[in-house]
Amino acid sequence: MELKEERKFAEYDFIDFDIIEEPWNLYKLEDQSILKTRFVLINVLKEKGTPKGTLEFGFQSTNVLGVIPPPELIGVPSRPYGPEELESSVVAEDLKIDRIGEERWNKYKLKNEIELNVKNVLVTVSRTNKFDQRGLPVYLVNLQAIVKPKIPKELREKIKKGLVE
Predict the structure, then answer these.
(1) Is the CB of residue 139 less than 8 Å from the CB of residue 87?
(2) Residue 123 Cα distances to 6, 96, 145, angstroms
(3) pLDDT of 49-63, one tens digit each?
(4) How far apart are alpha carbons 3 and 39 in whole angstroms?
(5) How far apart are CA 72 and CA 33, in angstroms?
(6) pLDDT grade, residue 3 (50/70/90)?
(7) In terms of pLDDT, which residue wins out, 158 or 60?
(8) Burial zone of 23 (CB within 10 Å; 0-12 exposed, 13-18 middle, 19+ buried)
(9) Under a CB-based contact definition with an 8 Å cutoff, are residues 21 and 38 in contact?
(10) Are 43 and 60 in contact (CB under 8 A)?
């Protein structure tokens, strides 16, 4: 007798949005490199069947990172590395981070008039002894996204009354 595994996948509504602002945030690291970070929102999802009167979203996103190192940190260009190899290649752990300018919020306007504000917080940065295909040092970066929705008053009232799905 053959057993078949039954899989249940959640169904989602994809919420369209406009990008109002997706700025770079800049940081000077203890090793004198400049780290550039950008949060990029890809999809906003609402699980089908979410009870009326609630507003729950999921996100699909990615982080874009760039580094401008001082000349002495540039090395020999090399191949891509896997996460385990990078984690075992840390030579400068938990570098001191100084923000350059103000950390700016990303702003998105959802089709339902909700404004999403998202900001990445740089938690830790460590430099490895590895280099990318251009010879730039490879860093392990831990970012945490903070999401702050702005819901118009009229929409909040409709949500409370269960008039919005």
Answers:
(1) no
(2) 40, 10, 10
(3) 666 666 677 889 999
(4) 43
(5) 10
(6) low
(7) 60
(8) middle
(9) no
(10) yes
CA 84 to chain centre: 21
Nearest-CA neighbor of 27 among 68, 76, 85? 68
* Contact between 92 and 126 (Cβ < 8 Å): yes
DSSP type of residue 114: P
CA quadruple 154, 155, 160, 161: dihedral sign: positive
* Tokens at 13, concatenated: 């509504």
pLDDT tens-digit map of 106-141: 999 998 788 999 999 999 999 999 999 999 999 999
* Residue 19 to residue 42: CA distance in whole angstroms: 10
Q: Are strands 106-110 and 115-131 parallel, antiparallel or unpaired?
A: antiparallel
The helix (H) or strand (E) run that includes residue 155 is helix 153-160
Q: What is the pLDDT of residues 10-57, one digit of tens each?
A: 688 888 999 999 999 999 999 999 999 999 999 998 877 666 666 677
User: How far is residue 156's CA from residue 148's CA, in Å, rounded to a whole number?
Assistant: 15
pLDDT band at 160 (very low <50, low <70, confident <90, very high): low
Quickly state the pLDDT bin for 157 (edges 50, 70, 90). confident
